[in-house]
Amino acid sequence: LAARDALVRAARRILRRTGALVTSAHPIKTFSHALGTVRLGTDPSTSPLDAWGAFRGVDNLYVTDGSALPRSGGVNPSLTIAANALRTGTHLLEQL
Predict the structure, then answer these.
(1) 62 by DSSP, 3-state: which?
(2) What is the per-residue pLDDT across 27-72, written as a single tens digit (0 to 9) for each?
(3) How many CB atoms lie within 10 A of CB 51?
(4) How far apart are the C-alpha atoms of 6 and 73, rounded to whole Å?
């Protein structure tokens, strides 16, 4: 709990420094995997991230955690998350 509280404080401090007017911490009451909160996709009207995980309209911001996955395959998504992060990282290296 102490580590969580420290992380929340640090995140709020960073968000305020970057211009956030309001922050909110929402406790998760389950041990399930949170997915799809900022989804990958090809349609900008339904997905804030492009197919590589780049946040539309924000330069140099990529999301590669579970929130980028539109849905779960019904199993632990850890390997899919890692594979997608490697895929995005490879894409970024190729762009350099």
Answers:
(1) strand
(2) 777 767 778 889 999 999 999 999 999 999 999 999 999 999 988 7
(3) 12
(4) 33
62 and 53 Cβ atoms separated by less than 8 Å: yes
Task: Measure CA of the first residue to CA of the last residue in the chain; give whole Å.
Answer: 40
**DSSP annotation string for 29-57:** -SSSPP--SS-B-S-TTT-SB-TTSBBTT
HSE of 64, CA atoms in CB hemisphere, 13 A: 18
Please say if 33 is a catalytic residue: yes
Dihedral angle over CA of 55, 10, 27, 3, nearest 10: 130
15 contact partners, CB below 8 Å, separation of at least 6? 23
Query: Residues 69, 35: contact at Cβ < 8 Å?
Result: yes
* Of 6, 16, 17, 33, catalytic: 33
